[in-house]
Amino acid sequence: TAPVSINPSVLNSDFMRIGEELDRIADADRAHIDVMDNHFVPNLTFGPSMVEQMARRSPIPLDAHLMIADADRHAVAYAEAGAESVTFHLEAAQAPVRLARELHRAGAKVGVALRPATPVDPLLDILAEFDMVLVMTVEPGFGGQSFLPSMLPKIRRVREAAGTAGLELSVQVDGGINRTTIEQAAEAGADVFVAGSAIYTADDAAAEIGALREIAAR
Ligand code: DX5
Ligand code: ZN
C-alpha cells in the first residue's frame, strides 16, 4: 500500500498571511485547500485565481477540495490553476464520470467526496474512474467540528471495494482528525488524512504533522 499522506487544511489559518501559513506546513505531504461557494455549503473561501497563486507559492502540492455546486461546470478551473488533485462532491455533479475524465485530461488526480448522509453504494460501480475517495467525517462547511465515528464503516467499505476491484485507490478522511481519531480512520483503511485545527492550533505545526504521520503509519 501507498505511504500515508498528511494534508493540513489551511481553512483555519490566517488568510492575511497565507504564504507564511503554507510555509508552516512544508513538512506535510500536500496542502488541503477548501473551496466553498456559499451554495453547496454555508461558507465562502477561495476561487481559482487564489488557488493558482497558492499553487505557485506553496512548497508542497495542493489538494483542492471543492465544496461547490455545479461541479461539472466549475471544477476544471482548479485543475488548470495547478492543483495536484481536485476532489468534487458526488452530490454536486450531474455527470461524475465525464467530469472525472475532464479533470484527468486537464492533468489532475481526481477525487470524489461523500457527505456523511451520502451512501457509498452509488459510487461503487464507477470507482475505477477515481484516484481517491474522500469520506467526510463531519458535515462539510467549517473547521473545528467533531469526528463522526459512524463514518468508520463507510471508510471500510470503500477500502474493501477497492481491494475487491483491484484498484489502487486513496481513501481520504476529512473532519475532526486529531491524534485519537486518525488512528481509528487509519485502522478502517484511510491513507490520506486532512487535519485543520489539530495542526493550525498546535504551537509546532511540523511536530504535530510528524506525530500524526507516525500514528497513521503504524
Ligand atoms: C470542512 C473542511 C475541512 C476542515 C477540516 O468542511 O472540508 O477540510 O478544514 O478542519 P478540522 O480538521 O478542524 O475538522
Ligand atoms: Zn476539506
TrEMBL record:
Active site: 34, 174
Protein's UniProt keywords contain Isomerase: yes
Cofactor annotation remark: Binds 1 divalent metal cation per subunit.
Catalytic activity from the UniProt record: D-ribulose 5-phosphate = D-xylulose 5-phosphate
Cofactor(s) this protein requires: Zn(2+); Fe(2+); Mn(2+); Co(2+)
Pfam families for this protein: Ribul_P_3_epim
Binding site for a divalent metal cation: 32, 34, 65, 174
SUPFAM superfamilies named in the record: Ribulose-phoshate binding barrel
Keywords assigned: Carbohydrate metabolism, Isomerase, Metal-binding
NCBIfam families assigned to the protein according to its UniProt record, in alphabetical order: PRK05581.1-4, rpe
Protein family (similarity comment): Belongs to the ribulose-phosphate 3-epimerase family.
Listed name of the protein: Ribulose-phosphate 3-epimerase
Species of provenance: Brachybacterium huguangmaarense
